[in-house]
Amino acid sequence: MFLHHLSGKQKSAFLKVALFLIRLDGVVDMREEVVLEWALRDMGLGHKDLPPCPGQLEDVLHELAAFRGDAEASAVLLVEAVRIGASDHIEDQAQSETLAAIAERLGVTAERLQAYTSYALRLQALIEEGQELVGDA
Fold first, then answer.
1. Cβ neighbours around 12 below 10 Å, total
2. Contacting residues for 3 by C-beta, under 8 A, at least 6 apart
3. Which tens digit of pLDDT belongs to each residue from 81-97?
4. How far apart are CA 116 and CA 110, in angstroms?
5. Residue 96, exposed/middle/buried by CB under 10 A (0-12, 13-18, 19+)?
6. I want to staple 88 with a disulfide (CB 3.0 to 4.6 A). Which of 26, 29, 62, 116 is the partner?
7. Are 17 and 24 in contact (CB under 8 A)?
C-alpha cells in the first residue's frame, strides 16, 4: 500500500525482510504469497526482482542500513512486514521477535511497533473482507 514510496535500495531490503519472515516458520502459506505478490505490484516489481532470502536474522538486520535516518520509510517497512507476517493467520513467536529486532535496529519504540502492528492487522482484515465481498458478488 505504501511500498511505492521506498527507494530502490529500500525496496530490495524490504523484499529480503519479507522473504525472511515468510520462510521463518518453515511453511510458505498461499496467503503469504498473495501479500508478497501485492507488495511486488505496489513497488512496480515482478518475481524476477526477488532477491535471495537471507539465511539469518543478522543478515536481515544488515539490510536495514537502507532505512537509516528515514522514519517514514522505516514505518512503511514495519507496517508492510507485519502484514506479511500476519497474512497466514498464525501467531508466530519467531516472527514477533524478528519484527521487534527490526524495530529496535531502526530506533522504533515497542509502543510505536504496536501501533504499526494494530494498524496492519486491521488493514489486512479489511482487505480480506473486501476480497470476500467481491468474491461473493
1. 18
2. 11, 14, 39, 42, 43, 76, 80
3. 988 887 777 778 888 99
4. 10
5. middle
6. 29
7. no
Instruction: Give the angle subtended at the CA of 71 by the CAs of 65 and 76, to the nearest 5°.
Output: 85
pTM, full prediction = 0.89
Q: Are 84 and 35 a contacting pair, CB within 8 Å? A: yes
The amino acid sitting at 116 is Y
Burial 38-67 (b: 16+ CB within 10 A, else e): bbbebbebeeeeeeebbeeeeebbebbebb
100-119 pLDDT, tens per residue? 999 999 999 999 999 988 88
Cell of 49: 526482482
13 vs 7: CA distance, rounded Å: 10
Residue 7: Cβ within 10 Å count: 12
Alpha helices in 1-137 (DSSP H): 8-24, 30-42, 57-63, 71-86, 93-106, 110-136
